[in-house]
């Protein structure tokens, strides 16, 4: 699921506590519908055992969406209503009432027992929902620390970010992005950690921390990539185990120098960025991609820095493979380039909003992988001072 608006604070996060999600309206009204259906059937059922006995189940029906107090009240109502139906001679063709008939007395007792069980189940469900809400709340806070909003504007650059998690309860995963204004220009990273779970989240946090520090220190993009490679290799060795070389991160590093009219790119085994300008959409792929981080020792060569024109009105889109590997019902991959050609005049915020909605519709609201995207556009004019 998506975490908040593009580049904004996650939705549903408050400063004080997590909020329980209200059940659907039809579920809250289910006890009323249950009783209404019983009243409709009771007069037309000519049997010795009238359908009023199904009122025994009413407390469990209430427990689906209500708390123990409501379930307790529903239990009392069910017992009283069952007595009213039992004592009414006209029900089910009876000539006399059966208020204290042994079968009805047994039904009263069973309803009370079922009500007690329903109250326990409702209390347990409420505790579980509160725990889940707290977990989501903590995960939202963790995401704000791990994937903090990128600067909306730096000089003549406008930036927006998007994150979608395939795990609805996890909220955060192994995809990462960051944009850091430095003396060398704005430096960007987008990456995808191999694997899932807490190990992937910890690896992403470690890589982002190293990037945020090194982006200010390293003089060029190749040196920045090499430093992150060293950091990832050190972390993999610290974790130990027999899969050290399988713990890697695909990533793209980009640098947009101030007023330079270019964008520099180092690709480490990641889907290439897209350059979008009116009438043109193309991949920034020179065919010289380096191995993913922590696998650079397999190459043993310096990182290649590719330079591309990046003028006013141009937009660069960095993304993870959760975008291009999204599938529709027929199994077809998401046609990112075709979509971008149709949206080539959209600013970063609108582009990512459209991408977000289109991905969910394309995958029928069931994304198979985490997705991150970072859009940066160079405006025609610099913002006014002050």
Automatic annotation (TrEMBL):
Domain of life: Bacteria
Key words, A-Z: Hydrolase, Membrane, Transmembrane, Transmembrane helix
Residue stretches spanning the membrane: 26-45, 105-123
Coiled-coil stretches noted in the UniProt entry, renumbered to this chain: none
SMART domains in UniProt: PP2C_SIG
Stored Gene3D superfamilies: PPM-type phosphatase domain (3.60.40.10)
PPM-type phosphatase domain: residues covered: 158-378
Keyword Transmembrane in annotation: yes
InterPro entries in the record: Bact_Sigma-Reg (IPR052016), PPM-type-like_dom_sf (IPR036457), PPM-type_phosphatase-like_dom (IPR001932)
Name of the featured protein: Serine/threonine-protein phosphatase
């Amino acid at each position: 699921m998506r975490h908040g608006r593009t580049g904004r604070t996650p939705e549903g996060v408050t400063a004080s506590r997590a909020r329980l999600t209200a059940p659907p309206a039809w579920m809250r009204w289910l006890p009323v519908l249950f009783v209404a259906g019983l009243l409709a059937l009771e007069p037309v059922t000519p049997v010795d055992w009238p359908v009023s006995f199904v009122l025994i189940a009413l407390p469990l029906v209430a427990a689906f969406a209500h708390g123990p107090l409501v379930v307790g009240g529903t239990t009392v109502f069910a017992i009283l209503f069952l007595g009213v139906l039992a004592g009414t001679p006209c029900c089910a063709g009876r000539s006399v009432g059966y208020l204290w008939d042994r079968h009805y007395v047994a039904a009263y007792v069973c309803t009370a027992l079922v009500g007690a069980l329903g109250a326990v189940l409702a209390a347990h469900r409420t505790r579980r929902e509160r725990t889940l809400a707290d977990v989501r709340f903590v995960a939202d806070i963790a995401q704000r620390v791990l994937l903090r909003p990128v600067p909306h504007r730096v000089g003549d650059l406008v930036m927006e970010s998007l994150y979608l998690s395939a795990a609805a309860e996890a909220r955060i995963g192994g995809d990462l992005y960051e944009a850091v204004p430095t003396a060398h220009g704005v430096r960007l990273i987008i990456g995808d950690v191999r694997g899932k779970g807490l190990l992937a989240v910890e690896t992403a946090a470690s890589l982002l921390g190293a990037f945020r520090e090194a982006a200010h220190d390293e003089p060029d993009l190749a040196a920045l990539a090499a430093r992150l490679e060293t950091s990832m290799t050190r972390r993999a060795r610290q974790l130990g185990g027999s899969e050290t070389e399988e713990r890697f991160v695909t990533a793209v590093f980009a640098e947009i120098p101030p007023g330079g009219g270019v964008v520099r790119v180092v690709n480490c085994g990641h889907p290439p960025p897209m350059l979008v300008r009116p009438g043109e959409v193309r991949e920034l792929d020179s065919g010289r991609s380096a191995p993913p981080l922590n696998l650079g020792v397999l190459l043993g060569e310096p990182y290649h820095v590719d330079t591309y024109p990046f003028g006013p009105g141009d937009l660069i889109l960095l993304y993870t493979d959760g975008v291009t590997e999204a599938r529709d019902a027929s199994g077809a991959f998401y046609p990112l380039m075709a979509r971008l050609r149709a949206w080539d005049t959209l600013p970063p915020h609108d582009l990512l909003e459209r991408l977000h909605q289109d991905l969910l519709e394309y995958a029928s609201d069931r994304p198979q992988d985490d997705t991150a995207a970072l859009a940066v556009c160079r405006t025609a004019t610099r913002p006014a001072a002050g």
